[in-house]
Design a protein that fits this description.
The complex is a heterodimer. By secondary structure, chain A is mainly alpha-helical. Chain A is built from five helices and no strands. Classes of the chains: A mainly alpha, B mainly alpha.
């Protein structure tokens, strides 16, 4: 037995492990529908991941998809857009929360707003340093 | 970017999946190139040109695309 796609194999094993763990927990503490909704997809995904990683044909397909230049570009664009949207949402939310906290006198809202402001600041700093790095190395 | 991929692929009697397999990309990438939604990298263009036995210049309509781009720059203020 040869593993052709190590990443898929590791992901599959991890998903199978989580599924089995939830199955055991459910057997000990009793099942409800949440367990089924979690265990089913985990075992299916894990099983599919392990099986695909053991097949040369499926592993090749997965690697071609992974290395595909358009897929990489789509991933980069979508992540960068998601990051940009998150920054705007953080900025808007922190301003609204701080203003709301100030007008109603609820300190909790101000603290949540300040927390978001810190997250926004960290993202700006990270943005700057990653830009410097890629500007140097691209 | 405008290319002759669809024209040459059809003339060669190949499916998008077959071409994708020959040049090691997904069929979705070939579809996007044919719909002019995605511009192939230099290496992918070279691989496709080799499959069809043409030059990259011919496959990617470089002269035509350059003229179109030149016009865009000429329109700049």
């Amino acid at each position: 037995m040869k593993i052709y796609h190590k990443k898929n194999f590791a992901f599959g094993l991890f998903a199978l492990f989580l599924g089995a763990l939830n199955l055991v927990r459910g057997a000990l503490q009793g099942f409800d529908w949440h367990d089924g909704a979690l265990v089913g997809p985990l075992l299916l995904l894990g099983g599919a991941g392990v099986l695909r990683s053991l097949s040369p044909k499926w592993s090749r397909e997965d690697k071609v998809e992974e290395w595909d230049e358009r897929n990489r570009l789509v991933k980069l664009k979508s992540r960068s857009q998601a990051y940009y949207i998150s920054q705007i949402v953080f900025l808007a939310a922190e301003l609204v929360l701080i203003a709301w906290g100030k007008t109603t006198g609820q300190e909790t809202l101000i603290y949540v707003g300040l927390g978001l402001m810190a997250a926004f600041f960290i993202s700006l700093v990270t943005d700057f340093f990653t830009w410097v790095y890629y500007d140097e190395h691209t | 970017m405008k290319t002759k991929v669809k024209e040459l692929r059809t003339a060669a009697g190949m499916t998008q999946q077959q071409l994708a397999e020959r040049v090691h990309v997904s069929a979705r990438t070939i579809i996007s190139i044919e719909k002019e939604q995605y511009s192939p990298s230099l290496m992918l263009a070279y691989r496709m040109a080799e499959v069809f036995g043409v030059t990259v210049e011919e496959l990617c309509c470089l002269r035509e695309n350059r003229e179109w781009e030149d016009r865009k720059y000429e329109d700049l203020p």
